[in-house]
């Protein structure tokens, strides 16, 4: 309740109105209209108030005759009928939330303009068609957690939502056809709309200044209604298990970030327009995806790229024009290849610069062939690639400013391809069961911070000692760990 000096009704200026303490409404009067004044045009709807809160039928009555709420209007509590708000045409910010008895918005039939509108957590609300005269939303429209709402009818006059358009957890809404007039928005999030099988109704949508997020829509089968959308800053499509392709996105140019994750039956990227550059790219947890060839136009990723949990992906073909990753903003694991079905790195032949490369948990990976031999890396992490036996593609490496880690690569027997490497900051060789020799690191002159050689069962301990003693610049005191390796003899 908005109140002053203990009253429930306060005046923000002059004009007719009740004095503090009369009634139970929480209305701040803006003072530019006489309540019920006669003689003027539409005098019954002449009042303007600064802000109001309606939580009971008595509060609603205090707004009878009000045509404008300049600031915030909150409707909640036990109010069940909005008939008293029939004069209302304009609201600065309208929030209808936690109104436990409210089933319809019929009293808002004259509402034409809002700055923003939020319809939140109204567990009895079934119908919003009462706002059918609404034509202008200056900022955001959020319709969130209204479990009995069956339709968005009432929004048919909206052509633009400049800010956020959030449709979240309205699980009985089966169609977006009420949004057929919508042409542009800032950002759109459609989340847990379990009644939707398509996005039909969004065919008129052409422009998004921000992001499009489609997440956890368990019955969504098609994106075809997005066929006229031309540009988004960020696109995320995730956890939509019935989605098999991306048809409908043919015209969409993704400017910054693309994420396609957790779509259990996504088999192809068909429909995706290949971007030429991105800030970030995440394709993860799509177990039936077999190809990324439609990314063929991608040349650079400024921050990071991650392919993960794609066991059916047998090739990186499609990345053939990719030149750099993480060049603008080096982050750990700028390129991550994890839990894929690949046997080699064919498709990365053009890749010249990656700040940090992480190749992990690829059970079928045998070789790094396909990696550009002139690639520039800051760090390299190879872990849990049990079939990896050929790292000859690393023969051009001369220096790593950060880390080199080889862990749980149980088919790797030697490091001969690394003989040109002269410097790393940290070196970790751990749990490589078939590793026999470290003499491939004979050219290594400096390890700046730390050396760890542990639990390589076939590697004689004397190999680790040889490497330590072979460094041109000794390690700082207590900056190495050697243990749990084999006991065999070393070559002279």
- Assembly context of the chains: single chain
Q: Which percent range fits the helix content?
A: under 10%
Report the end-to-end length measured between terminal Cα atoms.
87 Å
Largest sheet: 24 strands, mixed
Structural class: mainly beta
Shape: elongated
Which range does the strand content fall in? Answer: 25-35%
Q: How many individual helices?
A: 2
- Integer average pLDDT: 90
The sequence of SSEs as H and E is EEEHEEEEEEEEEEEEEEEEEEEEHE
Poorly predicted parts: 1-25, 31-41
| Rg over CA atoms | 32 Å
Total DSSP E strands: 24
CATH class of the domain at 1-139 reads Alpha Beta
Give the name of the CATH architecture of the domain at 1-139.
Alpha-Beta Horseshoe
CATH topology of the domain at 1-139: 24 nucleotide stem-loop, u2 snrnp hairpin iv. U2 a', Chain A
Structure write-up:
The protein has 492 residues and is mainly beta. Among the domains are: 1-139, 24 nucleotide stem-loop, u2 snrnp hairpin iv. U2 a', Chain A (Alpha-Beta Horseshoe), CATH 3.80.20; 274-379, no CATH class; 397-492, no CATH class. It is 3% helix and 33% strand. It is built from 2 helices and 24 strands. It has a 24-stranded mixed sheet that branches. The model is unreliable at 1-25 and 31-41 (pLDDT under 50).
